[in-house]
Amino acid sequence: MTAYAVTMRDSSPVRTLSLYGAVGLLDDPFPRDPQAGSYVPLTRQTTVLAGVRDWLGSTGDGAPGLAVVAGEAGSGKTRLLEQLVLAIADDDRLIGVVPDDGARRTDAHLLRSAIVSLGGSPAGRTGLELTNELRDILDAHREDSLPPVLLIDNAALTGSQLEILRGVLTAPGATPEPTRVHIVLFGPPALPDRIARRRALVERTRFIATIPPLDVDAARMLLGGRIDAVRDRGTSEANTTGPFIRDQALTIMLDASNGSPGGLLALAHLAVREAIATGQRHVDALTAEAVTQVVPAQGEESQRALASVDPVIQTRLSLPGVDDADAPVSASRRRGRQR
Q1: What is the pTM of this model?
Q2: What SS3 class is residue 283?
Q3: Residue from 179, 205, 201 nearest 94 by CA
Q4: In DSSP terms, which residues pair with 208 in a beta bridge?
Q5: Residue numbers of the domain that contains 180
Q6: CB 155 within 8 A of CB 185
Q7: H-run or E-run covering 21
């Protein structure tokens, strides 16, 4: 297997023994988009997932309620939402997901997205009309064995949008019973405090959790799990020594990412390519330091930085799982400079 690379330091392509082939990997464990790639269940995330799942499973009376999962950008909220959908997919209930489409979410946009996610076709022009349409969809499932679930990603909701949710969760004056619905918000760290300032929402809130940042053990599990997911089981690391990503490198990238899973994966994406480009078989401390100086691996900033850096570090891989038998091993240019 051959890797061709153009690095920040040298504009001429270099043919190297593939780093991935050397440790028996069949695919890229760290694609450019941290949301892509294999899901690795981490205890700090699965505990939150279990809490939401338990609440949804224990509300047989169908009383309306709200759950909040908070975390920094890159903390894994979207992957948790996906896992929650898989966990409740077999439940006898209507499930709607309002995704993060990257657009500015106005009040009308939020309502229309919620209606569409639950199978409706929004027709209203005003917020009141759209709210009534949403409530009508939910009321049509009042006799279901389990109430509908509405999941909202990137729920950085404004005050008026929180009022919309309050209006959905509580009964209008002329309605004898509240709408049967469970709403789960996946939002920023400030979301629980914003909800706490609204008594009507506090009374409906059944579960709140904040995803904590990674520690060293969780970071090692995340990166190691991604690697294991694409490892060729028939190939061992006999021809290499030590872990694919050295402990020092992991610590450097973890510190730079402030414990953000998305930030750590973004740095791993670049660190592997830099290792390939410099002829290494490991991601070591020097490589980690190099990429952390280029990319601020924190949330959305890291994604913008990746967009600007990737054209500079251009690596094209062919990954059948084994190295080309005749592929020459080029000396590391970095080590050559060190000598």
Answers
A1: 0.79
A2: strand
A3: 179
A4: 68
A5: 43-210
A6: yes
A7: helix 19-22
